[in-house]
Amino acid sequence: MAFDTDSNTWLKKLRQLNLFIPVLISVMGAISIIMLYSAAGGTFSPWAQKQLIRFAMGATLMLLVALTPIKFWLRYAYILYGASIVLLLSTRLRKKLSPQPL
């Protein structure tokens, strides 16, 4: 299994994280949500709510990636790289085969 289940390991990794980048990203995310809220006339519904959900999902993913052991990324680097190339090529192929613009 790629993740350690020992709670001490998770806490130790959380304490060792450099907080400057996550805090900076959170501040930029908050500013973007505030700007979308303001652009929508003081309501969350058109844009800010979607941005908030995407930001929360991205922050969670960022934390999971940061806490994943480096050996996992080294072990599966070629597989992940190949999968991302296949996904990029599939979007290119879909664009060629699609009769309507995406």
Short structural summary:
The protein is an all-alpha fold. 75% of the residues lie in helices and 0% in strands.
Determine the N-to-C terminus distance. Answer: 39 Å
Overall pLDDT, averaged? 88
How many structural domains does the protein architecture include? 2
Percent strand = under 5%
What order do the SSEs take from the amino end to the carboxyl end, as H and E? HHHHH
Shape: flat
Look at the helices and sheets and give the structural class. mainly alpha
Q: Which parts are unreliable, with pLDDT below 50 for 5 consecutive residues or more?
A: none
Q: What about the largest sheet?
A: none
Please tally the helical runs, counting DSSP H or I stretches of 4 or more residues: 5
Relative helix content: over 70%
Number of strands: 0
Report the C-alpha radius of gyration, rounded: 19 Å
Please name the defining characteristics of this protein.
102 residues; mainly alpha; 2 domains; 75% helix; 0% strand
Protein architecture, described:
Helix content is about 75%, strand content about 0%. It has 5 helices and no strands. The protein has 2 domains: about 1-70, no CATH class; about 70-100. The protein has helices spanning about 5-15, 20-40, 50-65, 70-75, 75-95. The model has no long low-confidence stretch (mean pLDDT about 90).
